[in-house]
Specification:
It is a single chain. Helix 5 packs across helix 6. The protein has six helices and 17 strands. It is globular and about 60 Å long. It is an alpha/beta fold. It has two domains: 242 residues, QueA-like, CATH 3.40.1780.10; 79 residues, QueA-like (Thrombin, subunit H).
Length: 341
């Protein structure tokens, strides 16, 4: 399978640069995966597609201000770090830009010196392991010096960082938001719960995979970066009971989907656990847990468009994306939503 099979033309004007002030007023495209039929709705209409006792599974990770702007200590050359994963203590895996300034042993300064870092090692994928030095509490220093790590296709800065957090975010650790969840408001979630839908929270801390393009020609040769996830006993019990009773599992976002599909056995039973997943879902994959997916519109040739193609079919997805452009949907992180049922 060729990566170019997942390419589509997208004019730059359709890349959303800022979130809607009313999260749940985004457009919602409903794609029926068995027929390819398309409906055009508003996101608040999502409740119409949920039945009592369905499970709505949400990723409650919270984005940290992971983007640090600093300088090399000897040359004063500007440097950008994006924190990806805490490897233990004060050692982090980070994205660096420009990479040529971040050789092993290089030292960097952030702010007025409240935070410094030394490069310990370089990975095959080009990230670095760095050790941070500081006085005080790291999280407090990061809150002061760090910025939200918005994707590179978003050029505008946010006036309110909470607009890049889901309203149910809880556990800090992500380098990017689980963006499908950005459309929900507390009122909409309350309405959904009052309808009898079970809200289930799991955690996956979004990492390098969000930023990393597919650089190989053959889909099967791409290697996913590992991300940390947690599925509690309570969450597993609710989902498994629903599956036994023939009720549907709606996954909010590709991160929730990857967590569920990583934590289940071959029969689709979700096992309570925590650990690392590098699962790569593309056409040919047999889904074991989820029945429906709420997601955004993704980048051409990305692992995310491959995942949704695995669920709905590549031709259905590419046609839906063509229709989305014709109807001026907003794309990517702050864009509109799709429900695949």
């Amino acid at each position: 399978m060729n990566v170019h099979d997942f390419y589509f033309e997208l004019p730059e004007e359709f890349i959303a640069q800022e979130p809607l002030q009313e999260r749940d007023k985004a457009k919602l495209m409903v794609l029926h995966k068995d027929t390819g039929e398309i409906e055009h709705r508003v996101f608040t209409d999502i409740i119409d597609y949920l039945q009592p006792s369905d499970c709505l599974v949400l990723n409650d990770t919270r984005v940290i201000p992971a983007r640090l702007l600093g300088r090399r200590s000897d040359t004063l050359g500007k440097m950008e770090f994006v924190l990806l994963t805490n490897k233990g203590g004060d050692v982090w895996e980070v994205l660096v830009k420009p990479g040529r300034r971040a050789r092993i042993g290089s030292k960097f300064v952030f702010g007025d010196g409240e935070l410094t870092a030394e490069v310990l090692d370089e990975t095959k994928s080009g990230t670095r392991f760095v050790r941070f030095y500081y006085n005080g509490v790291f999280d407090q220093i990061l809150d002061k010096l760090g910025k939200m790590p918005l994707p590179p296709y978003i050029k505008k800065q946010l006036d309110d960082n909470e607009m890049y957090q889901t309203v149910y975010s809880k556990h800090e650790g992500s380098a990017a938001a689980p963006t499908a969840g950005l459309h929900f408001t507390k009122d909409l979630l309350n309405d959904i719960e009052e309808k009898g839908v079970h809200l289930v929270y799991i955690t996956l801390h979004v990492g390098l995979g969000t930023f990393r393009p597919v650089k190989v020609e053959r889909v099967e040769e791409h290697e996913m970066h590992s991300e940390f996830f947690i599925v509690s006993q309570e969450a597993a019990d609710i989902i498994n009971k629903a599956k036994r009773e023939g009720r549907r599992i709606f996954s909010v976002g590709t991160t929730s989907t990857r967590t569920l599909e990583s934590s289940c056995d071959n029969e689709g039973n979700v096992l309570p656990q925590s650990g690392w997943t590098d699962i790569f879902i593309y056409p040919g994959y047999r889904f074991k847990t989820i029945d429906a997916l709420i997601t955004n519109f993704h980048l051409p040739e990305s692992t995310l468009i491959m995942l949704v193609s695995a669920l709905a079919g590549r031709e259905n997805i590419l046609n839906a994306y063509r229709v989305a452009v014709e109807n001026r949907y907003r794309f990517f992180s702050f864009g509109d939503a799709m429900l695949i049922v």
